[in-house]
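User: Reviewer 2 asked us to show a designed sequence for the structure in our supplementary figure. I'm pasting the structure tokens here. Could you produce the per-position amino acids so we can include them in the response letter?
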């Protein structure tokens, strides 16, 4: 951090986009005493938001296998903010497993990550009794957590209102339509101002079964991509997530077959599960797949490029934006001037 000239102070703050990035910005700015208005182009169900289709894993250690160190740094700070603001957030850890044929990939994952404990078959069973006899060894990342995006976003919105903020749904505005300090968290919709953004498709399948019980996300090492099995409430499980360089919003037959087949290898009871939903979201990403807080002008800040790490890093990015506005602090890895 370097102390720079404090930016122009605005009591009124307009935030565009009520997904996870916009919601965290609205919450922290409202708590800091700003007059916050959060604008969202869709209704309260957020069907147009990438956050609606997210996995919600808070897994900075697991993500370090492929992500830059910056993501781990932001993610670790964000874990503290999730705990502080939503103390009921589940921090039951993450479990990584593999079949014997993928042992080499499993060991590679273990080398590239940290803060995990190796488990034998008995240790896996102790954590997840439903997986008894399914895997010989696993990695347990005890410090990690997960949220259910479609349940936690309304909680964040409630906290914003309790802190004195205002939320306007069905409010499709641009930065020029609102006054005061504008924080643009529109994701891909911001390509009119940030043409470098691209969409990376993440597909998911939501299934229902009472035959399997899991207390934490289970990540299966897979030849093409890791399969995530993320427990939801009401006997639901989210299967995901692919990362495909495409901007359509459908789920391909190949992806569906691979996700469902991989889930079956985690537990055969998933073969009898009921499919509730297929869906996909387009994650906003810059060419380097790293997030940016861009100081566009004195009264405009753009926060974008969260890629596949939205729920993991959004709280930390919001804290950095607030630090800049209040104290002129700059994080050189994340912030830049337009």
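Assistant: Here is a per-position design you can include in the supplement:
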């Amino acid at each position: 951090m370097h102390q720079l000239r404090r930016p122009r102070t605005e009591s009124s703050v307009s935030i565009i986009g009520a997904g996870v990035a916009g919601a965290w910005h609205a919450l922290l700015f409202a708590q800091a005493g700003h007059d916050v208005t959060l604008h969202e182009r869709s209704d309260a169900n957020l069907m147009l938001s990438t956050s609606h289709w997210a996995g919600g894993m808070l897994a900075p250690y697991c993500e370090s296998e492929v992500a830059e160190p910056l993501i781990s740094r932001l993610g670790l700070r964000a874990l503290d903010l999730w705990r502080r603001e939503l103390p009921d957030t589940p921090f039951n850890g993450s479990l990584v497993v593999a079949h014997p044929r993928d042992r080499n990939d499993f060991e590679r994952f273990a080398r590239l990550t940290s803060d995990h404990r190796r488990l034998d078959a008995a240790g896996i069973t102790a954590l997840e009794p439903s997986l008894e006899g399914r895997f010989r060894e696993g990695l347990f990342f005890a410090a990690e957590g997960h949220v259910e995006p479609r349940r936690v976003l309304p909680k964040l919105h409630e906290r914003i209102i309790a802190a004195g903020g205002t939320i306007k749904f069905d409010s499709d505005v641009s930065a020029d339509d609102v006054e005061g300090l504008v924080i643009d968290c529109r994701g891909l919709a911001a390509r009119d101002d940030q043409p470098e953004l691209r969409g990376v498709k993440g597909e998911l399948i939501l299934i229902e079964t009472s035959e399997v019980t899991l207390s934490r996300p289970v990540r299966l090492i897979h030849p093409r991509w890791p399969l995530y099995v993320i427990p939801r409430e009401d006997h639901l499980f989210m299967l995901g997530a692919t990362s495909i360089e495409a901007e359509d919003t459908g789920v391909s037959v190949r992806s569906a077959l691979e996700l469902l087949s991989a889930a079956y290898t985690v537990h055969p009871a998933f073969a009898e599960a009921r499919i509730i939903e297929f869906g996909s979201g387009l994650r906003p990403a810059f060419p380097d797949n790293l997030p940016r807080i861009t100081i566009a002008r004195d009264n405009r800040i753009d926060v974008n490029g969260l890629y596949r790490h939205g729920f993991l890093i959004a709280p930390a990015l919001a804290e950095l934006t607030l630090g800049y506005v209040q104290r002129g602090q700059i994080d050189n890895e994340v912030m830049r001037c337009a």
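For the response letter, you might also mention the following. Helices lie at 20-31, 60-63, 69-85, 103-112, 121-127, 149-162, 253-266, 310-327. The chain is about 30% helix and 25% strand.
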